[in-house]
Amino acid sequence: MTVKKNTRSLESGIETDFRDKMSYGRYLALDELLSAQHPVSVPEHHDEMLFIIQHQTSELWLKLVLHELRTVRLSLQDDDLRMAMKCIARIKHIQRSLTEQWSVLATLTPTEYAQFRDDLGASSGFQSYQYRAVEFLLGNKNAGMIKVFESDPVAAELLSRLLNETSIYDEFIRLLARCGFPVPAGLLSRDVTQAHVFSPELVDIYRTIYENTETNWDLYEACEELVDLEDNFQLWRFRHLKTVLRTIGMKTGTGGSSGVGFLQRALELTFFPELFAVRTEIGQTHPEPK
């Protein structure tokens, strides 16, 4: 069948009557989804739609990241590295999309944003509870952050629950112990409401894994997937910082933060510090103990 006059005819088997059938729009709740953009500027500023959709899209992706991270944690608890790594591989693609879409927001010039920024009030991406939940699940716990969500019981409950649960890194470390590696007992019974901090003993374990890949291939591969995960997260943070700097310069954030300075300090936060520290150790010759 060829196209005539640049018009494609419907095939006879294509569904057209959805009175009693599931349609694309109904399945995706498009009526609700596409009517969820409510600009507040008066008169409505053309570029506010971009600002809203950019952040709503990010929240949808973050919802999927949380969905995948929960499965990663369960899979690690079940010693199912393959399923855990499958989910992390998907998260890495989501991270790429999240990072690349900053380029769309970067088309918003300082002049354009200034024309409706005041209408946003105190709303800020800093108040994204899903973003904070992702950080908690990766291991960067911070109980002080929950205070921001006291007026949102659902968000506060979610973050409080995740604060008291293990992160995926806690579960990976526990898996290492079950595999016979000498994980310090303190790491296995640590206070999981606190952020993970650097452990030199883990560096020694990772060095063993990296220098004996033939016998530790699955763990070696898992270590590299976790490194990719953190690397991508830091790229997202950096792209966020640069977009904010490009759009508002050194102004304070709408949510009350110092803006660029606050985002800059986020680049110093880490999820899996030992997996980066081990790179200095690999290939080094250590003197024999006397």
Q: What does it look like?
A:
This protein is mostly helical and 290 residues long. Helices cover 56% and strands 0% of the residues. The protein contains 14 helices and no strands. Helix 3 (48-77) packs antiparallel against helix 4 (81-100) and helix 12 packs antiparallel against helix 13. The model has no long low-confidence stretch (mean pLDDT 94).
Write the layout of secondary structure elements.
Blueprint: H1 24-27, H2 30-33, H3 48-77, H4 81-100, H5 102-105, H6 110-114, H7 129-138, H8 153-163, H9 168-178, H10 185-188, H11 200-211, H12 217-248, H13 260-266, H14 273-281
Quick gist of this model?
With 290 residues, the chain is mostly helical.
If you average the pLDDT, what whole number results? 94
Largest sheet: none
* Percent of residues in beta strands: under 5%
Rg to the nearest angstrom?
23 Å
Given helix and strand content, the structural type is mainly alpha
Q: Could you give the count of β-strands?
A: 0
Inertia-based shape: globular
Secondary-structure element order, as H and E? HHHHHHHHHHHHHH
Oligomer: single chain
